[in-house]
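A further point concerns the way the authors explain their paired sequence and structure data. Each protein is reduced to its one-letter sequence and a matching series of backbone shape codes. An entry of this sort, consisting of the sequence and the corresponding backbone structure tokens, reads as follows:
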Amino acid sequence: MDPWLVVFLNLPALVLIVLCYLWIGLTETAAIAAVTLNKIPNVTTIIREGAKALDPNLRAMSLVFKVPKGDFLHHIVIPQLAPFIAAAARSGIAVIWKIVLVVEFLGRSNGVGFQIHLYFQLFDVAMVLVYSLSFIAIMLAIEWVLLQPLEHRARRWRDA
């Protein structure tokens, strides 16, 4: 899968969005496909690097002590992958919403991206800033209310 991963990592988001609209049409499905195809390679790369960084000694220890696979995954693998999962989530949310705005800007008749495009055409700087700042506020709320508490919970074992 490495060649495909490299292709999709280097394929410009704008090109992928346009291709999805051309192949699927100006539909919600095309918008979702474009966003998904743009983000999966980045998340895959981050999680894969996290998996490569897993401590092999912990795997050997789990085999010696006959740790069940479910417990091994829950108590050893997931805690080690937590920083990488958090990084993938944080990066994913940041990039996904930017791509969503471009998708809405280019081919949708509703949404924040559409509204920013509309006010851009009207040269209404104040409304572009209002939509942009409200968008930023929502992203900060997701970071503070969702991501940071989950990340803190996942890292509890390191603080003990």
